[in-house]
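Query structure, 421 tokens:
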């Protein structure tokens, strides 16, 4: 069994220990760290109540254990992600066409032989490639890459995902429903106003990766070509997507929800995202710091609130981990099991490292129904172009995918802005 090194607290102190490479053991270490954190943080709060300030040693110990919890959670997340990745390259049961496509694609990848793919296209009376010679990867590989991305990229996992065959998805959206009213038995029935529609446009942008391999590697029959392509591509695609879905400017990439115009929620209008200010620049208010969390939760309408999720990075989560309610209960709750999210005031937390840190005027925390609020658009097919000439002795695999994204319901997402107003 392989092992990883992590830092975990024991009895209120920290020690470096070896964590077995299992999800269960990593989860136990994380829960031990959380219990130690609560003990030391309770001591810090008691010192503040008794002496109006916390001891320096206690504060430093809280910070160290907080960091240790983050380290344990990273190890746990990596193990859960690794466990969630099934082996690739399996043929679809009973599907002769899928097996034939897989064999032809592997022949193309290994030796550049296009005959098998061309024969499949001729049988189907269709063309699966552009004029530049790219070919669609086999169906099972395409599906597998998409599923692994949903594990790696938190926004993709939360959002609605649509597949399109064209370059742009246009979606009508009702911004205002039709009017109605009460009338008496004999009163006139005037015509009511029609619903108001807005058209939202979500263009797909090209995301690419170009891994390389030697011909010797490709000639080795022991190498699982599909698994290799997926392993090379999925992480880099996920990283690029995750950043774009949060903060992308919409220029040759999806538009992230933080790139839209933000306004104070009291003056919210369609096309903008509303925010709740913390009341302090670059932090939470000293008195009632958690009140802003309640405000942002109830800024959403009930239909969206019941599906709400907090989105923030680990450092923001470390800050709110210290908050308690009036009865002394921690607002942040540890995951109920390995692979489950932590929760805040009863709502799950999605860790997105692309969210900004807490700073003056930063929208570091988002809360919303991302399934309704954000749309990811995937153009059908991931394409691979084999290039054995440009970088000899390496064979390049120009892999492309078209993906877009943007906010589709501006009422469904609210932000917490770390500002006075």
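Result returned for the query:
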């Amino acid at each position: 069994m392989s092992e990883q090194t992590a830092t975990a607290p024991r009895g209120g102190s920290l020690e470096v220990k070896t964590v077995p490479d299992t999800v269960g053991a990593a989860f136990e270490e994380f829960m031990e760290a959380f219990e130690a954190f609560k003990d030391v943080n309770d001591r810090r709060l008691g010192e503040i109540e008794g002496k109006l300030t916390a001891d320096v040693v206690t504060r430093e110990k809280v910070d160290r254990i907080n960091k240790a919890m983050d380290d344990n959670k990273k190890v746990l997340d990596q193990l859960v992600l690794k466990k969630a990745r099934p082996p690739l390259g399996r043929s679809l049961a009973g599907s002769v066409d899928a097996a034939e496509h897989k064999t032809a694609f592997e022949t193309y990848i290994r030796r550049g032989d296009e005959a098998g793919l061309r024969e499949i296209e001729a049988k189907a009376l269709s063309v699966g490639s552009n004029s530049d010679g790219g070919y669609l990867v086999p169906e099972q590989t395409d599906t597998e890459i998409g599923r692994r991305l949903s594990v790696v990229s938190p926004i993709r996992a939360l959002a609605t995902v649509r597949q399109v065959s064209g370059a742009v998805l246009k979606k009508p959206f009702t911004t205002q429903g039709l009017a109605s009213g009460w009338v008496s038995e004999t009163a006139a029935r005037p015509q009511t106003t029609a619903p108001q529609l807005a058209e939202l446009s979500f263009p797909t942008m090209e995301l690419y990766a170009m891994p390389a391999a030697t011909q010797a590697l490709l000639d080795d029959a022991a190498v699982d070509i599909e698994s290799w392509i997926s392993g090379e591509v999925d992480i880099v695609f996920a990283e690029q997507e995750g950043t774009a879905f949060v903060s992308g400017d919409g220029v040759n990439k999806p538009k992230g929800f933080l790139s839209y115009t933000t306004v104070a929620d009291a003056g919210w209008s369609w096309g903008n995202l509303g925010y709740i200010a913390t009341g302090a620049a670059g932090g939470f208010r000293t008195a009632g710091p958690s009140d802003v969390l309640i405000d942002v939760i109830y800024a959403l309408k009930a239909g969206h609130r019941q599906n709400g999720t907090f989105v923030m990075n680990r450092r923001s989560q470390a800050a709110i981990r210290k908050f308690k309610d009036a009865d002394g209960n921690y607002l942040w709750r540890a995951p109920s099991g390995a692979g489950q999210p932590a929760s805040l005031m009863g709502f799950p937390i999605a860790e997105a490292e692309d969210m900004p840190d807490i700073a003056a005027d930063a929208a570091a925390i988002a809360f919303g129904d991302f399934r309704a609020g954000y749309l990811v658009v995937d153009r059908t097919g991931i394409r691979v172009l084999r290039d054995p000439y440009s970088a000899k002795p390496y064979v390049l695999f120009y892999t492309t995918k078209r993906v877009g994204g943007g906010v589709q319901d501006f009422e469904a997402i609210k932000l917490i802005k770390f500002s006075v107003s």
